[in-house]
């Protein structure tokens, strides 16, 4: 783009970088030591500023962007920085260059594939079954290990460079300087008292009213769910779960000798409360229900508040525990975080489990649980099972949560995941064959894709590995042999061009497999 083009400046509501709240730094958008104000390259900060203006409607499709010269003057940056900012916006499909005219805001490309099939709520629930999924998961893990360089579009955490690595490292060094015996002193049984107090204060934001003593720190969310199940069940009991269901939960149920009763879940509203109510009447041996209400894995659904309230009331009237697994809530794309099931709990029915694995640091494995009316039993089980958590991660997390650094990080993480999802949705719609269906989620990093019915997800998984791409076949998300023509794709890669090409390759693969299956 010719930097001498003269164009109107962006609307006044698009503030120069140094005037944006929370960015800090002197007039050129950099602190005194010359580094970008929030640790990212300056061109990325500027690109994100304009992306927010586009998202908020300040800049609308068809609006002319500032000329390069105007951009440089407005932000006090070099031509190289201005050019890279616009290239970033182009790569993210937010603006486009028009010959001899300049840059303009693009109209968002909408996914054109039909929505995923809703479950049949009239169908009676099947029989509860002892879970036997572990061997299938082990086989997939073993195959992954044979392709260590394959692009991972089947994972459940974001790319490492989307997490605040430098800030966490510095916080860890500060913690060790302040408390040199941190690694050699046993911690509190329930977890670091300061961190638990902070968590209790933050829980108020989603309607949970608890104190520090009502929080027990765990080794990630999976230990929290494990503890909750052990607190309310005995081997042989029946547990109602969503269908499809996160395979990690099915593995836990198998390890505890529990039966799974699969309740259909909608890709838009989550578990079918009416189907669960019917199941409670026909299966009196149900001891607990486990749900992921916000960005369910793998569906990406978010339960409406009315459904959440009805679910809590239903379990309370039935006198059974409702285990809420909520690790993705802070990745929902809404101005206010969605409410927790626990916020409707008046009698201790809800056991709330969550972690910071998906939102902040997968390597720290910090989770927590409130056990509702089973809280004391959960505490005893935690002590028996694994004793206290290591302290360093908890102290680092407490420091990070005490400031606004975590909120800034979450905003950036949601923004980047949204961009990645939009790019992936466009690539899926453009390249997958007729008969493919999916419902874009309201946040997070998953796509639950329904392939043409004649395409086996198990065969697709094998063929994708041969092309150097990992996906998760739908068969592992059910203990009842469902979802053979579904796959879960995730968008952890920050190399959007690489991810686009991988999705196009998967689309071509699905088209070949669908055509081959139709050939007599």
UniProtKB/TrEMBL annotation:
User: From which residue to which does any coiled coil extend?
Assistant: 403-430
Give the protein's recorded name: PLP-dependent aminotransferase family protein
Q: Can you give the residue ranges of the HTH gntR-type domain? A: 40-108
Q: Name one GO molecular function term.
A: transaminase activity
Write out the entry's keywords from A to Z: Aminotransferase, Coiled coil, DNA-binding, Pyridoxal phosphate, Transcription, Transcription regulation, Transferase
Region annotated Disordered, chain positions:
1-40
Which Gene3D superfamilies has this protein been placed in? Aspartate Aminotransferase, domain 1, Type I PLP-dependent aspartate aminotransferase-like (Major domain), Winged helix-like DNA-binding domain superfamily/Winged helix DNA-binding domain
> Which Pfam families does this one have?
Aminotran_1_2, GntR
PROSITE patterns the record matches? HTH_GNTR (PS50949)
Q: What's the family?
A: In the C-terminal section; belongs to the class-I pyridoxal-phosphate-dependent aminotransferase family.
Q: Which CDD domains does this entry report, sorted A to Z?
A: AAT_like, WHTH_GntR
